[in-house]
Specification:
Structural class: mainly beta
CATH class of the largest domain: Mainly Beta
CATH superfamily of the largest domain: Regulator of chromosome condensation 1/beta-lactamase-inhibitor protein II
Largest sheet: 4 strands, mixed
Number of strands: 44
Number of helices: 0
Radius of gyration: 48 Å
Helix content: under 10%
């Protein structure tokens, strides 16, 4: 770092190029920053990048400090603006491009990085690996790897410590960077000019954009918060409304509101930050003294300072490469479900789809939660992305009835024998089945049979319409608890035939309804009964 005599302001109060300079400033990594009113005037703005968190990976334009890079419809790159750059644009097919202060980087469709332009600080020495998002800043670059970890390279004088954790997006600015963690919290690091690091707000965010000396972010609810230098109103006052994306440039910021309109605020001498831009947009990118965007019909437009040609779109057309990649649909394994009624069974399932370029919706017939009939049904699913590419697949749902009927036997036990053969026993048996209703029952012995004295097992079966056999048993005990009936003679009076008395005979009998009965008497018939 060192001190220099800086630049002049032209008669209209607008900052111009280096040859017009007169304010005492400080050189930070070769870039002039005003000291007395630090940031009240910025010579060259840092670039905002196409942020993967807010813009599809196929975003067409990225505005830098005084140049612009874009992706042609065939996926190749083109850059325009400051003619002194003399860059050699890398070959290949790209899904994302990010323009910085004096260099740019892009991600090829295979996830590899390519960087080009000024390499005085090593900012174009792209590391190996695969990446989901890259952001070019002022002499350095940061990127999110496919494992969601961060890596930064370039100007070593900043002495940064990259925050740990996993990230969904990163944005490189003038003298530091910010990232959105996968839990939605923000992390900022680098030089703490204008408290850009120490004033990092809390809460959860969907996207962050680091400008030259200010930073803006979209909160989870869609409101915008900004902090850092407010020399041109780039931090406050902020527009009201709900935003889906924000892009911080040199000393201005633009954002896309939920209705697709673009609102801008901050330094507007060259018309780079009008309060409202006509049309609706899917992407906006703020550069040094200009802004570019992609309208919802795919048309790229740029506005602001045209001095270096950075707002003059190249011939040949820009836009995201045609999306011809179908979604990848994930289907469940074939499903077998148990029938819960005669109509079959309600079956739920989960089908998902991912698309490398945009969102995909899935529709299936029959839908999850439908009642599937007995037997085999083929479910056909189709995933469709926003560009009409489709992927289809099928799986089967088999609803089977494997549950046997449930039988109930109603019988009384024990039963008293009514004859020598036992007793006639009657009972009822029924069967219920979730699918077949009430199938017929067959019992052995059948109801109304004569059950012998002792224990007898009743076995009943029922077969449902699917051939499932249900069985139930019951035990019946036939008992003989009825005593025999005695037939006794009337009292007998006999004449003694001697001093010992008299021999008396008598007849006694017994009957039993169930079986034979024997009679025993004491004294027995024919005994000599004494006198008395």
């Amino acid at each position: 770092m060192g001190y220099v005599v800086t630049w002049v302001i032209d008669g209209a109060g607008a900052p111009s190029h280096l040859e017009k300079a007169v304010v005492v400033g400080r050189v930070v990594r070769g870039v002039l920053v005003a000291l007395g009113v630090l940031g009240a005037l910025v010579l060259a703005a840092s670039a905002e990048t196409v942020s993967a968190a807010s813009v599809p990976s196929s975003g067409a334009i990225s505005a830098g400090s005084n140049f612009t890079c874009g992706i042609r419809t065939d996926g190749t790159l083109v850059c325009w603006g400051d003619p002194t750059l003399g860059w050699t644009i890398p070959l290949g097919t790209f899904s994302q491009v990010s323009s910085g202060f004096s260099h740019a980087c892009g991600i090829r469709i295979d996830g590899s990085l390519a960087c080009w332009g000024d390499n005085a600080s090593g900012q174009t020495n792209a590391p190996p690996g695969t990446f989901s998002q890259v952001s070019s800043g002022n002499g350095f670059t940061c990127a999110v790897k496919t494992d969601q970890t961060l890596v930064c390279w370039g100007d070593p004088s900043l002495g940064w410590t990259i925050p740990p954790g996993t990230f969904s997006q990163v944005s490189s600015g003038g003298f530091g960077a910010c990232g959105v963690r996968t839990d939605g919290t923000l992390a900022c690091w680098g030089l703490n000019l204008y408290d850009l690091v120490s004033n990092t707000p809390g809460g959860t965010f969907s996207q962050v954009s680091a400008g030259y000396l200010h930073t803006c972010a979209v909160q989870s609810g869609g409101t915008v918060v900004c902090w850092g230098s407010n020399s041109f109103g780039q931090v406050s006052p902020l527009p009201t409304g709900i935003f889906s994306q924000v892009s911080s440039g040199g000393s201005h910021t633009c954002g896309i509101q939920v209705d697709g309109t673009v609102a801008c605020w901050g330094y507007n001498f060259f018309g780079q930050a009008p309060p409202l831009v006509a049309g609706t947009f899917s992407q906006v990118s703020s550069g040094g003294l200009f802004t570019c965007g992609v309208q919802t019909d795919g048309t790229p437009v740029c506005w602001g300072d045209p001095t270096g040609g950075e707002t003059t779109l190249p011939a040949g057309g820009l836009g995201p490469p045609a999306d011809t990649t179908p979604p990848v649909i994930t289907l469940p394994a074939n499903i077998t479900a148990e029938a819960t009624g005669p109509s079959g069974a309600v079956v739920t399932y989960a089908v998902s789809a991912v698309d490398p370029d945009d969102a995909a919706t899935v529709s299936c017939m029959p839908a999850s939660g439908s009642t599937f009939p007995l037997g085999l049904t083929t479910v056909s699913c189709t995933a469709t992305d926003t560009h009409g590419n489709t992927a289809s697949g099928t799986f089967t749902v088999t609803v089977a009835d494997t549950t046997p009927p449930v039988l109930t036997i109603n019988v009384t036990s024990p039963v008293e024998a009514t004859g020598p053969n036992g007793a006639v026993v009657t009972f009822t048996a029924s069967a219920t089945d979730a699918v077949s209703g009430s199938p017929a029952t067959i019992c052995t012995p059948p109801s109304g049979s004569t059950f012998p004295v002792g224990s007898t097992t009743i076995t009943c079966t029922a077969t449902d319409g699917a051939g499932n056999l249900g069985t139930a048993t019951a035990t019946v005990v036939v008992e003989d608890k009825t005593a025999p009936t005695l037939s006794l003679p009337a009292n007998v009076t006999a004449e003694a035939t001697g001093p010992s008395g008299a021999v008396v005979t008598y007849a006694v009998s017994a009957t039993d309804p169930d079986d034979a009965a024997t009679v025993a008497c004491t004294p027995i018939s024919g005994t000599t009964f004494p006198i008395g």
